[in-house]
Specification:
Length: 176
């Protein structure tokens, strides 16, 4: 009983990828990552303009899930936009796959309380350039592994990538 309570508390405290209680999703590829009590953004719930922007940029799949190899270890790492069904908080979650199975949550970033105007896409370039609109000292980055674009439709694009020197997922605003 104590182990069950600990597992439930772990799931509720956002280390949800460590939980094995996955729920069904409209995208079978990414449904395995979404824990009980969470839901991922789907194409069907996007506003028409957001859906159109996503479809122009994407080759299919769901706007709330992208698999890329962030740290270039040969394993697919999921990035998800999920909403906690209890609190309503929408977050970006990036997890790194472990060689023996399972995941380590590398990034948990609250995004607000709505999916409106958001989607994920695989970053197609091998580098990322910061936008001129942001007062930043960040420099261009060559990417070792994969990266994802978190798109705020008609507002900004933020690229999430593996920073090898810092051993963490980093972000860089690359468009407005």
């Amino acid at each position: 009983m104590r182990g069950t309570i600990l597992t439930v508390l772990t799931c509720l405290s956002w280390t949800w990828l460590a939980c094995h209680a996955a729920t069904a999703s409209s995208d079978a590829r990414c449904g395995k990552y979404v824990a009980s009590g969470m839901r991922a953004l789907t194409v069907n719930e996007m506003a028409p303009d957001d859906r159109e922007a996503f479809m122009k940029r994407s080759s299919g799949g769901q706007p709330g899930c992208v698999e890329v190899d962030f740290n270039a270890d040969g394993l697919k790492d999921p990035a998800l936009i999920v909403q906690d069904r209890n609190s309503g908080v929408v977050s970006l979650i990036v997890a790194l796959a472990k060689k023996g199975g399972g995941f380590t949550v590398a990034l948990q970033k609250p995004l607000g309380s709505s999916f409106d105007g958001l989607y994920l896409a695989a970053h197609s370039a091998t580098s990322v350039e910061p936008t001129d609109a942001v007062d930043s000292t960040q420099e261009s980055r060559n990417l070792k592994g994969g990266a994802v674009d978190l798109v705020f439709v008609e507002k900004a694009t933020v690229v999430y990538y593996w920073d090898d020197a810092a051993s963490k997922i980093a972000e860089l605003q690359s468009g407005d």
